[in-house]
Amino acid sequence: MNILILGYGKMGKVISQLAEERGHTIAAKIDESNVDELDTLDASEVDAAIEFSQPDAAVNNLTWAIKHNIPVVCGTTGWLEKKPEIERLTLSNGSAFFYASNYSIGVNVFFKVNSFLAKIMNEQPDYNVKMEEIHHTEKKDAPSGTAITLAEAIIDRVDRVKRWDLDSDVNGNEHALPITAKRIDPAPGTHIVTYQSAIDDIEIKHTAHSRKGFALGAVLVAEWIKDKKGVLSMDDYLTF
Ligand SMILES: NC(=O)C1=CN([C@@H]2O[C@H](COP(=O)(O)OP(=O)(O)OC[C@H]3O[C@@H](n4cnc5c(N)ncnc54)[C@H](O)[C@@H]3O)[C@@H](O)[C@H]2O)C=CC1
Ligand SMILES: O=C(O)C1=N[C@H](C(=O)O)C[C@H](O)C1
């Protein structure tokens, strides 16, 4: 496949390397410094685009790919208020758009465990739930996209939890899920969900050791999305 890299930072570099190791070619590596290369790129030669840039760049990149009918795999977090707009554009254009807050298989297993635990804890009102996420200091958004996905699953299943709150001192308020976002180098991504009671704590934790799991997942999805259409997610790709 010929893959276009939209966002050639820490993730774009690992993704390009892995894609080449898997026998793909890279159509172009687009960064802040060479966005104008998109004006002359032959889109008909591109099989899929992988977009890992930054919150204020994602919408333009995705719009460009969708309008050029290039299936696009997006991992950028922190722009999701605009996602409905991108989904509408995808559908009206008959293109393909895939979004996941986390492409690693391990985190997607963790999402399932989190949902299962939340369902059980709905029946255990003595426990308050809280979350901690730890990432490197260059991360632009907080809380992480992964933390938001985890929180949304808890809010959907635990009736007493109505919202999440970032870095607030709401421990003990049973209606809020406090999320603490720590920035410590070189953490690639750690997420901890804790249910706390006077008697005991129940804790689940995922720790990424590198960016390889995120990057491999994105390349595998790009291979899968090549001939697909529509708004797609990990629920369409993963069979577990
Ligand atoms: N969904 C997932 O599995 C994962 C998502 N991420 C997300 O991916 C994004 C990128 O992460 P990193 O690579 O660590 O960040 P980074 O800061 O190392 O790289 C971002 C790159 O985007 C470039 N950029 C800025 N404007 C651009 C534009 N208009 N077009 C193309 N590129 C542009 C910047 O120059 C920079 O090189 C973040 O939003 C992060 O949260 C990161 C890891 C995993
Ligand atoms: O910015 C990062 O690095 C990461 N971002 C994603 C997120 O916001 O959840 C995924 C991963 O945790 C790494």
List the helices and strands and how they pair.
Elements: E1 2-6, H1 10-21, E2 25-30, E3 48-51, H2 55-67, E4 72-74, H3 83-93, E5 96-99, H4 105-121, E6 128-135, H5 145-157, E7 163-166, E8 176-183, E9 190-196, E10 201-207, H6 212-225, E11 230-232, H7 234-237
Helix pairs in contact: 1-6, 2-3, 4-5
InterPro entries: DapB_C, DapB_N, DHDPR_bac, NAD(P)-bd_dom_sf
Protein name: 4-hydroxy-tetrahydrodipicolinate reductase
GO molecular function: 4-hydroxy-tetrahydrodipicolinate reductase
Describe the structure.
InterPro entries: DapB_C (IPR022663), DapB_N (IPR000846), DHDPR_bac (IPR023940), NAD(P)-bd_dom_sf (IPR036291). It holds the Pfam family DapB_N. There is one protein chain. With 240 residues, the chain is an alpha/beta fold. The chain has two domains: 2-103 and 212-237, NAD(P)-binding Rossmann-like Domain (Rossmann fold, 3-Layer(aba) Sandwich), CATH 3.40.50; 105-207, Dihydrodipicolinate Reductase, domain 2 (2-Layer Sandwich), CATH 3.30.360.10. Helices cover 35% and strands 25% of the residues. The chain is built from seven helices and eleven strands. It has a six-stranded parallel sheet with strand order 2-1-3-4-5-11, with helices on both faces. A five-stranded mixed sheet has the order 7-8-6-9-10, covered by helices on one side. The model has no long low-confidence stretch (mean pLDDT 96). The structure holds 1,4-dihydronicotinamide adenine dinucleotide and ligand LZUJQKHR. The site of 1,4-dihydronicotinamide adenine dinucleotide has 26 residues, from α1 and α2. 1,4-dihydronicotinamide adenine dinucleotide binds at residues 6-12, 30-32, 35, 52-54, 57, 61, 75-78, 100-103, 138, 214.
